[in-house]
Write a structure and sequence with these properties.
Layout lengths: L3 E8 L12 H14 L4 E8 L17 E8 L2 H8 L4 H8 L8 E5 L7 H4 L6 E9 L5 H18 L3 E8 L4 E3 L2 E12 L2 H8 L2 H4 L2 H5 L4 E7 L2 E2 L1
Antiparallel strand pairs: 1-3, 1-4, 2-3, 2-10, 5-8, 5-9, 6-8, 7-8
C-alpha cells in the first residue's frame, strides 16, 4: 500500500482562534491534532491558514481567518479509513464540528516525494503554493506525466526563491460545478509569495506552463504557511 496524504479544507468559524494558546478553539484544535497523531498508520501533519482568497479567509497568520488547510500523511488510504471507522471517530467528529462552519472537504493523494515536508513545512519552505488541476475523467494522464518533469526541471534550475515540490494524482474523483473530475495536486515551496509571482513573469515559466494546462477544466491555487505537527 502506497503512502498517502490526506488533504482537507476546513472552513473555521470566524471566532476560532486556533493559534491563541489557552483559548477554547486552541484547546479543541490541539486535542484533535493529538487524536489524529495517535492513530495507527499516522505519520505527520502540516496545517496553516490560506494567505489569499479574501472572500473566505483573513490574509495573515495571527488574524482570525476562515479557511485552514491541514495535510496529514498516512501509511495508506486504508489506514485513514480505518480511523474514520473506529469508535474514536464519532466523538472526534462531534468536537471538530464546534469550530467548523461547514463540513470539511477531504481527499487523498499519493505525493512524490513522500513525505512532502520540504515543500510544506514552514521550517523548510516559508510559503507553500498549493495547486490543484482538474481534468475530465476521460483525460489521458500520460501527456501530463511526460510534461511535468520538464516543468519541474526548469523550475529547479531557473526559479529564484524556489525551495521544493511534492506532487501527485488525487486518488478520488473530485466534484466541481456539479461534475466529477480527476485531479492532480502540487505543493511548491517558496521563499515568499513574491518570489513565486516573479517567477510567473519569466520566459522560463511561460515556456513550460502551457503543457500542464492542456486539457484542464479548472485550476485552483492559493498560498499557505504550514506548521508541521
Amino acid at each position: 500500500m502506497a503512502p498517502a496524504t490526506e488533504i482537507a479544507a476546513l472552513s473555521v468559524i470566524g471566532a476560532a482562534s486556533l493559534e491563541k494558546e489557552g483559548s477554547p478553539s486552541y484547546t479543541i484544535w490541539q486535542e484533535l491534532l493529538n487524536t489524529i497523531a495517535s492513530q495507527d498508520g499516522y505519520q505527520r501533519a502540516y496545517w496553516g491558514r490560506r494567505i489569499e482568497d479574501p472572500s473566505v479567509v483573513s490574509l495573515l497568520i495571527g488574524v482570525v481567518g476562515r479557511l485552514v488547510n491541514i495535510s496529514s500523511d498516512w501509511d495508506s488510504v486504508e489506514a485513514h479509513e480505518a480511523f474514520m471507522a473506529s469508535r474514536e471517530y464519532d466523538p472526534f467528529n462531534t468536537k471538530f464540528g464546534k469550530i467548523l462552519e461547514n463540513p470539511p472537504q477531504i481527499h487523498h493523494a499519493n505525493l512524490d516525494p513522500h513525505p512532502p515536508a520540504p515543500a510544506v513545512s514552514s521550517l523548510r519552505s516559508p510559503v507553500t503554493e498549493c495547486l490543484t488541476l482538474y481534468f475530465p475523467t476521460s483525460f489521458d494522464r500520460s501527456g501530463f506525466d511526460s510534461k511535468w518533469p520538464i516543468f519541474k526541471k526548469t523550475l529547479e534550475e531557473k526559479a529564484d526563491g524556489f525551495r521544493a515540490v511534492s506532487s501527485g494524482w488525487v486518488i478520488e474523483e473530485l466534484e466541481l460545478d456539479g461534475g466529477k473530475y480527476q485531479a492532480w495536486a502540487g505543493f511548491l515551496g517558496w521563499d515568499s509569495v513574491d518570489a513565486h509571482m516573479k517567477y510567473r513573469e519569466t520566459e522560463a515559466f511561460k515556456g513550460t506552463i502551457g503543457g500542464l494546462r492542456e486539457g484542464t477544466k479548472a485550476i485552483k491555487a492559493y498560498h499557505a504557511i504550514f506548521e508541521e505537527k
